[in-house]
Amino acid sequence: MSRPPGSTPPIWLYDGVCVLCSGGVRYALQHERDQAMRFVAIQSREGRELALAHGIDPDAPESFLFIENGVALPKSDGVLALIRHLGGPARLLLAGQFLPRALRDWLYDRVARNRYRLFGRKASCEMPDPAQRHRFSLPEAS
Questions:
Q1: Where are the extended beta strands (E) located within 5-139?
Q2: Confidence bin at 102 (pLDDT 50/70/90)
Q3: Burial of residue 71 (number of CB atoms within 10 Å: 0-12, 13-18, 19+)
């Protein structure tokens, strides 16, 4: 999926201490079709600002955002937009676009609210490979 000249890369605002979210970032890095996405941990200064600007509590996030062409897409719409940039088996989840948004978001909310219990939580954000570091906004080391 190529971007028009002069457009900004899509941004994935994710929970950097969530094991599920971090695994999703690793998957995206391996399967991204155009290698242009930016990854912004909600725990970073930029991530906190983005979250607050879009009505998400950065201290207790229950949604991630996928921002594309200036449009912030939360919950299942964000998941579907993200997956459109990926290859691999995750593309099978695009079948979910045929479900009503209310049902998709209900399913999304169940996973989001239980993600730490189901998948775990890390003490800090995972550091990306040095070759990919420029694509990330992470919390500053204290």
A1: 11-14, 38-41, 65-68, 71-74, 136-137
A2: very high
A3: exposed
